[in-house]
Every structure is written in structure tokens, then in C-alpha cells.
């Protein structure tokens, strides 16, 4: 495994990491969950990503249970959670968002579900324009001071708001956001590559990117339509169909080109898509979703592939998706 | 239910809320208290107001008991307490006021009576000119840092003192007051509308207003004298008679006019008086007192009435009480 | 009882208060200790003064035991302790002084001996020139932030050092010293009246004065020599003989004059000496030592005497001790 | 025993102190460990030095066990630990270094192994250029605020980095490093005497020096080769051979000269080498390693020797090692 500093912090994340979104507490039984976490750990993955809203709290609960089962050393694990959406299906006004109240309640509840003393990375899962930046930054700092979290960050925030938070923190001697969790793939490059470009040098922010395979599109599995057992076929994730499958014909053509490039390197489209993400030095870690060990191990090969992806290959595959 | 941000904070309060003053621990049995809190919650009320001095601590104790009975989710509830008067009938010098000592003792005791881990809103119930503003602000901030309260505010403070506290906090990187609890009704408009007008934009302060019906006068129940079973008839509340019933004849004439306006809208004088309060955008929530479910539900209809109260109606009823 | 603000803080101390020095853990049995504390409380005394070094920790232990016996309300009591001398007879280098280490250890141990959650007033019992002011001030602030103490102060410090601590605190947004415990009596006026005169208005410092009767000299009990059962006769307190009995003849003449002035007001020399202390508005409280209820009650009469002590009387008795 | 302030702090360390490195958890049985600590304490030693990495955590565990056995008063002991190398033989990326994560985990684990409530001195065992100074300083300050440590320092850091940490702390109102643990002996003088010379007056930093006998070379025990039972013969410490035994012939000649000087004073080479270290006023304490009581007691005699080492002797022995 390769390890990268999370931005300019001292925390080192495995370049590939494990996400519980849309799998833990949903479709993955506890035994499989345990095997997936064990295999991840054995392959050197150290970052396990969760959120209060994933499976309405069940992802955290399952992750916490499995960590106890496996007796992995706490200090070898980077565990995240996220606050914003709440962990109840029909939340009341104080049960979501980024008010000091929900930040406190959500963190206490995540610690209980995860059965941990502290959370390594605590993300504001979305921006909340109904809460002043000062309230968000000071509330996150209270959690740090009280020992409940180590670092805080944002997910899917616009650069302007991250900058505002970082500047407020600097001006008041507080801890600013140290990590952002954006979507990033060959199909979604703008945020990570353009919008955030000034944040990296100025505030030392790292990124833990999600959906590197664009909900599976980049694996080629939608090349011949939406399989009945795929995520996009699920009622719950149909909202993903539109962003993922817009310009469907053009995209699928590009995916086929990607497969051809991958084949030249003896790899799959998915592996090449992951390796391409890893090629961006501002990416601290690429979060993998997996429901099977085999799938996980296939994806982990992206790391070895990385050194074979030269500038020419990068240019050609980027041209495919331009 | 409608929800409003408490000033410029991230906390969202139900526009109508439930006060325990003069009812819990006094005249309301525990069963009724439980039914009132349950009905309030079912109607979307999320803010429940208490104070160390209400029924000498018994209001908090009853509220705490009932919250346990009902197993309502803590994160859906905004619970307040207030420090100043003490919770003993003949307090010694350190058992009231806003010294660091009483602030600490009162908060610890309120948490015990309420059986909670933290209080959402903690109010300085009156100003205390014997305590420097610096001591009050830093003591409230200690409670925030120690996780015992989330936000602090004031009740019945003059604007000048709120401003002083807010400026001290800003100058020292501390949390300033975020909410004031003033009296507000057609008969008591000056503080909320005039005195505090600059505080809202400058410091983002919200208001949780009490006595919106002027101790019942605006319901019309004193139109024909003071009923034997009414609050004003109670020995304990006779101090309210003078402010409520000054200019009695003129006021009762106005209340009758209010009833007429209400009738035009198919509502009661009480509902219209509440709706008028809600019409002020600087009011974060209007605290209702109730001893019976029926009374509570009648008052809750004020919210639906609000949209029917046009500018003309507002002008006419304000003229009645001018 | 009269109550006075401790300097410009919000804490109100009884003008006369109870000290455990040289009595608790030494000569007073637990039953008497309980009666003394009970009588003090009944007479309105709210401040009980202790220190780690008094009877090598036994004074705190006895005070803590008695407070539990009496079930007095914690929020009605102001309890102090002091750090410097250590609580062991032959302390090692880290077991005394004002290093961060001893401040922490001493406070934790005092809380254990007193069986309390927090100490109201925590004094640096002497200056310690081997410790930088920054270390003392930040260590005291750590205790405040951790909820172990409410206010901190000094005892027998020179004004220059108090000023240095207060300025360091102001410059760094920390809590400065709020109270000094100096010796003060007709025989020891310089510190309270001259040396500290600028500290009161500038830093709002209060004083809790000790030895108002100059180890008993002002009661007249040494007029005819040192009684065998008096404190000065004790081997342990012979160091007091020199400062107390210097210029013995002149002093005893003055004490006789004081007795004459007291007689005119129907009081004793001791009562007048105490009333004279109380006449200084910069004195927050006068600490009484007592081993018998009768003695305590006699001394408490000084408060009623205060209003009879006019400017002329003050001038005459001050002239006696000039 | 002589005691010295640790730099300009208020903490007083015994001039000679006890290190657990390379002995506790390695070759010393628990009974001997207990006897060594007891003898050290009886001779007035108050500082006991440990680190997470010493014997992979076993040194701390043994020290903690022995402190419990001996029931020594906690407030008479200065206990250190160090964070950097981790306490596992093959640490993962988050299990070593100076990230906020490892600082927290290492401190919690050291407290558990030592079975203490707090650590007196917590050292950053090496610099970590992968962690920004701001993260190191704020993480150490979190431990101070949370009451887990009292002072923090560095070990084997370059002066430039210590200065950077101290300046960051000053600029942000935080606690800077107060102590450095460098190697210091007649064979390693540059850091303590030259490189750090400006740090002492500017930041008040103390030093707790280690390896004052250059891994035994200065005792003369390697004069005739490496004895089979000596540390340098151990496989584990062979890395020490090169630095210790470079210029072997010249060094051994110097050691013989040192023995001659020592003999003139009725002392051993080891005692004179220790006394020479103690002669530097910027040395707060010299850490002794010992596996036998006799060895410890021999070394403790260096303190009495100190006053016999005049300027001429110093000059001559320094010339030997020039």
C-alpha cells in the first residue's frame, strides 16, 4: 500500500481506502462486512469512511461491530463520520444540518454507534447556509478540544465556503477544515482540479475522493444497459441515473476506449479509472466501495498500475472523456 | 408547525413553543404535564422553556421527569433553563445572581433536576449589576467549553447591557449572547420593537418572547372582572395585576375590539394576539403557557391564522392598543 | 450578617468569615469543629478558609468531614484552599511552591481532603520567585477551565508581583488574580492601605484579611504576659512572638487605650479591633479564628459595632497605634 | 541530592536522574527494577525517564508496576514519556510520528502502561518533518488542556525546529516546548554547548541529557576491547558501535587520561565524566542508566565530586577529548 499525507497535515492515509456508503447496513451481511474490513486492513488500507446518514446509522453501527469483532488496533485505523443529513428517516429541524446542536448530538451518537472514544475525521457532509460559518467552526473546535474528534473537514462544499471557514479559523486561532470529500472521477473533474486548486497550497487541505468509478459506469458494467442487480437499478439510487447516465451514448463510447487503454496495460477499465484518480497528487485517498472480497482485490491492483500510467496514456484517456 | 432560526444562529425553533412557567410544579399534575408535552411535541413544538426559579426548581424537575416518561429523542428537543433568582425560597448571597459561582451551581443543579447531559439555551434571567460583564461572559463560555450548555442568552436585559456583553465577547474571541427572552404582546411592544432593533442585525440575536397574551388579558377573560380561578386572582401572582390591569377600562375596550377583528377571521382574540406576535420577524418563537390540552390546541391555531392577518388588520389592531 | 463583593467580582462574602488556621486539625475536636461551622453558618458566615499546609492537610480534612456531617448546601458556601507550602512535613522539591506540577497536585489533593467537586477560591499562599509568572497564571487558568476552581488569588504577595500577574492575564486573555489574603490589623496596616491601594481600582482585587487581632495581642490577653495556654506560648508558634510582641511595652499601652475606647462603646478591645478592620472598604472579609462558640459569637458582635465607630473614634485608635 | 530548575520553568529536577532506556523491560528483572527505583528515590532522584519505544512499551509498563509496588508519592515524582517511534515492532503509518493522531494515541497508551493520571514531561522523541509545527504544538497543548500532561518538550531536535515551535507557541498564546533531551558527553558537546546556546536565554528551555558516559566508553570498560556482556556487544545495540567507537584508538587514549585526572581526585573516570556534564549550568539533569544498585551508587557520587572539579581540571579533560 502507498500512504499519503492528508493535505499538509501529519495524518497519513492509505492511497486507497474503504467506504461503507451504500453497502454496510444495506446489502452486506455482517460476516461479509467483517471479511471486507479484514481484507482491507491486511492489504494496508487504514481509512474507513462512514457517515451518520449511511443506511440511517446502520453503516456506522456495522462498522463499529466489525471493528470490535476483528480487534484491530485503534491507533492503526482512521475512522470518519459525517454530520448533516441526520440519522433518522424523517428528521425534525434540530436533527440535521450544521447547527451547534446537531453537530454535538450527531457526534455523540456516531461515537455510540461506532463504539469509539474518538473519531479521526469529522466531516460537514454538505454546506448549511442557515448556519453562520462562525458557529460551524467553533462547534467543530469544541469537539476537538473535548477530545471527541481529531480533525474536521467538509464534503461537497464549494471552495468559497471552505475558504471562508479556513479564514475564520485562522483569524480566531482555531482549527480550520483540513480535508474535503468531493466526488472525483474521469466524469467529474472540475471541483478537484479547478475549483479547489488554490485551497491546496493556501490551506493545506487534503481530499478523500468518492465515486471514482462514477457509480460503476467506468467499470463498463452499464455498457449494455442497467443490469437488474446493479446499484442504478435500485429504487433507492435512481437519483444517480441522471447524472451518471447523461450523454449515455457518448459516455459509453468513452468507457469502451478506456477499456482498450486498460487492456494495453493488462488491466481493467475500473483499475485504470482508479489509477487515473491516484495520479492526481492533490488526491489524498480514493475511497473504494465493495461488496465482495474479489471486487476489492481487483480494485486494489490500481495502485500497482499507477506507475505504468504515463503522461501519454493520461492524455489519451482524458481526451476520451473531454 | 413553522420553524424559525433563533436570530442568526443555526438553531431552528418552532414558532410556537411551550413554557413551564407558573404551571409545572404549581397547578399541573404530572399526568397532565406529560399529556401537554406529548401534544406539544406531536404538533411540532420543539422548544420547552424552564428556569431554576420556576416553582422553585419543581418546573424543571417535572419537565425532566416527563421527558423520561415520554422517551422523546433528546436531539429533537430544545430545552432551556435560566439562572439568577436561585431555586430556594430564601437564598443566601451566593445562591442567586450572576456570579461565576451561582452560574456554575445553578447550571449543575438544573442539569440534575432536568436529568439531562446538557442544556440547549441557558439564560441570564435578569441583569446583575453587581457582577462585571467579563465575569458573566467568561462564566457562560466555561459552561459551553465544558459541554454543559450550547448557547447562552439573556432575559429582560436592557439593550445596552446585551450590547456590552456582545462586544466583550467579540473582543475576546468568546461566545456572545445569542438570544433574549423579553415580554412581548400588544400591550408591551417597546423592548422588542424599539429598544432591541439594532441588536438583531448587529449581533444576530433571536428572541423567545413570553406573556404574548399579557397574562390572559388579551384572551378577554378579564373583560368582566378577575375570575376567582384565574392567575391574577392567585395570591402569588397579584404583582401582575398592576401592570396587566393598568388603564383597565381602556384596555378592556381594546380587547373587545380585538375580539371583533378576530371574529371577522373566524378566530379568537387570543389567537389573533398570538398571530400578531408571530407577525414580527424578529420574534424567533412565542412561548405559550397552558394547563389544558384544549387550551394548547386552541393557541396552536394562531399559526394558521398568521397568513390571514394582512397589513390592514395589523394596523387596525395596533391602533386599538396605541 | 453583612455581605460584600470580593473586589469587583460577582462573589459576595460575609464581612466576617471563618478560618481554620491553627485550630482545625490541631486543638479543636471534631464535635467542636462541627459546632463552630454550624454556628458560623447560622450567623450568616459563608466563607470558610483553609490551606493545604494548615495542620499539614488535617484542617482541610476536618473541614470536609464537618461539611458532610452538617449537610450544608454547597452553593451557599465559599470554600478556599491555598497552594505553596505543601502538605507534608518534609516536602521534596516538587511537593511545594508554585510550579505547574505542585499547583495541580495540591489542588487535586485538596479536593480529595475537602471531599468537594470544586474549590471557590484558590490562593497562591506565598510568592515563588523560582516560577515564572506565566507558568503560575496559566496553571491557575487550567484549573479554572477544568472546573476545579472558580477564582484564584494570592496571599502575602507583594503588589508588584500581583500587578505582574494581573497584567500577564490581561495581555493573554486569561483570568487574573481576583483576591489577596494579607495580614491586616491595627498593627499591620501598610500592605492593605498603602502598598495595594492602586490594585483595588485597577484590577478589582478583593482582600480576605487574616490575623485582625494580631495573634490575640489586640484582645488584651497578653497585657500581663504570655498565658501558658495561649498560641504564642506554643512551641509551634513561637515564631509569632517576635513580630507580635516587638515594642511590647508601647504596644500593650496602645491595647489598653483601645480597651478604653471600646468600653465607651460598650464593647471589648477585640470587637473594636475587628470593627476597625471592617471600616476599610477595601477589606472584603475579615477572617476570624475561634476555638469556642462563645469566642466566635463575641467576635461576631463587631459587625453591629461597626456603625458606632465614627471618624473621631477611628482617628483616636489609629493614633494609639501610630 | 542537588535540584535544578528545568530551564526557566518552575519544575525542579534532581541533578542526576534515572533512565529506563535499554534496561527496563530488557535485561532488568522486576525485583531489581524495584530496588533500583527505591534506591534512586532514597538518594533524592525525582526524575524517571521513559518512552513509548523503550523495550517496545515494556519499560513504561515495568516502571508503572514498580511505582505501584513502592507506593511512592506521585507528587514527589517527575515521570516522562516520549512519542514518535511507536510501541509496536512494525508500526503502520499512523502508529508513529508526530501527527495529532499518534500524539493522542501514544499519550493515552503511555498513561495506561504507566498506570498514571498524567505524565509530567512529554517529549517529541524526534523531529517529524511530515507534520507541520502548528499541528505538533496544538496537539501538545490539547494534552495540557485535557490534563494528560504538564509540560512538553523535544528530544534530539535541531535548534531551528525548537525555535520554530517556540515562536509558533508564543505567537498563538500556546505553551511552547520547555525541555530538550539531547545526547551530551565529553564526546558529544556540540548540540548542548553550541547549537542550543541561544535557546536557553530566549525560551527558557531546560535539558535532560542522556548518554553522559557515551554508552560506557567513558567508564573505560572498552579500553581493552568490547566485553561479551556489554551493551555494545548486544546485537540490538550494534548500531551504537560506530558512533561510540569511531577514532577508537584516540578516544581510548583520552579515556585513559580521564582516568588519570579522576584518580587525582580519588574518583573514577565515569564519576568525573558525569561531574563534567553537571558542570554545565544549562544541563538540568543528567540521566543515568543502571542495572545494578552498586553501579547506581557509584555514579551518584559524581555529585559530590562536582565541587572538586575546578576550571583547570575541566580545561585539561576537555583538551583530552578535543
Give an account of the 3D structure.
Four copies of one chain form a homotetramer. Chain A is of the alpha/beta class. Chain A has a single domain, classed as TIM Barrel. Helices cover 42% and strands 13% of the residues of chain A. The first copy, chain A, has 13 helices and ten strands. Chain A has helices at residues 30-42, 58-70, 100-114, 133-145, 159-172, 190-195, 199-203, 241-245, 248-264, 269-278, 293-300, 302-306, 311-320; strands at residues 3-5, 12-14, 16-19, 47-49, 78-83, 119-124, 149-155, 179-181, 206-209, 285-288. In chain A, the strands form two sheets. Chain A has an eight-stranded parallel barrel with strand order 3-4-5-6-7-8-9-10, surrounded by four helices. A two-stranded antiparallel ribbon of chain A has the order 1-2. In chain A, helix 4 crosses helix 5. The longest helix of chain A has 17 residues, at 248-264. The first copy, chain A, is globular. The model of chain A has no long low-confidence stretch (mean pLDDT 95). At the A-B interface, helix 3 and helix 4 of A face loops of B.
